[in-house]
Design brief:
single chain; about 35% helix; five-stranded parallel β-sheet; four-stranded antiparallel β-sheet; alpha/beta
Length: about 250
């Protein structure tokens, strides 16, 4: 995903750009409203600061919205409700107040993109939940997971981990990325807790997903096809899949 970052504060922009790139985003950074409006390369979403040196960010927001429907997320130190309302009325899709974490910005980008991207016709049958294969659905608004129509009981961090890994099935996620996204950017505890939660997902979703451990790097989640699910095992299952339809056992 390609992000246009409009921010005049260099330390903030560099930190945000590095964080987004760590999660696989491509970032073009400009520091003025004029540069944002003159930017010719295509982009999927705009992160727009309101306190620009040459013009009010709200004017840039209005101009960008008049040009098209690209999602705009305002990022600003202005936390006053009036600024929020004006920004949204001018066409912004979301508003993030400084200070903020990269995690929050990424979550808001993904949420906005889910809202603006056309949904498949069959998603209406699942109440807007995201479908993975033919059996697994994740309703991120309600934080509920179903396998073949049956709800799977998950501990909060198990759900957060599953939701994060299924954002990009097949992508290799480093331990650092996962710990920052699911636990906290300032997590200093042992990463063994990640292995425990991965094992829980393998058990509860045996035959539905695989979570492959890549030594020295992290984990890769794959959706199991119906044909593969009929096999005797799955890669990286970490043991017999006694969870059946995802019932597993008590949430860890």
């Amino acid at each position: 995903m390609h992000v246009l970052l409009v921010e005049d504060d260099e330390p903030v922009a560099e930190s945000l750009r590095r964080g987004l790139q760590r999660y696989g985003f491509e970032v073009d950074w400009v520091s003025t409203g004029a540069a944002a409006l003159a930017h010719a390369d295509p982009y999927d979403v705009v992160l727009l600061d309101l306190g620009l040196p040459d013009t009010d960010g709200l004017d840039v927001c209005r101009a960008l919205r008049e040009r098209g429907n690209v999602p705009i997320i305002v990022i600003s130190a202005r936390s006053d409700e009036t600024d929020r309302v004006v920004g949204l009325e001018l066409g912004a899709d979301d508003y993030v107040s400084k200070p903020f974490g990269v995690r929050e910005v990424i979550a808001r980008i993904r949420a906005v993109m889910r809202r603006v991207q056309p949904r498949a016709a069959d998603e209406s049958a699942t109440g807007g939940a995201d479908r993975y294969g033919t059996r697994l659905t994740i309703d991120r608004k309600a934080a509920r997971v179903h396998v073949a129509g049956e709800e799977v009981a998950l501990a909060p961090k198990e759900y957060d981990l599953l939701a994060f890994l299924t954002e990009e099935p097949g992508a290799l996620m480093s331990r650092e990325q996962i710990m920052e996204a699911v636990w906290d950017a300032n997590w200093f505890g042992p990463t063994k807790t990640l292995d425990v939660h991965v094992a829980a997902l393998r058990r509860k979703f045996a035959g539905v997903i695989t979570v492959e451990a890549v030594r020295g790097v992290g984990f890769r989640l794959e959706i199991v096809s119906d044909g593969a699910a009929q096999g005797s095992g799955t890669q990286g299952s970490g043991g017999p899949g006694s969870g059946g339809q995802g019932s597993g056992g008590p949430a860890s």
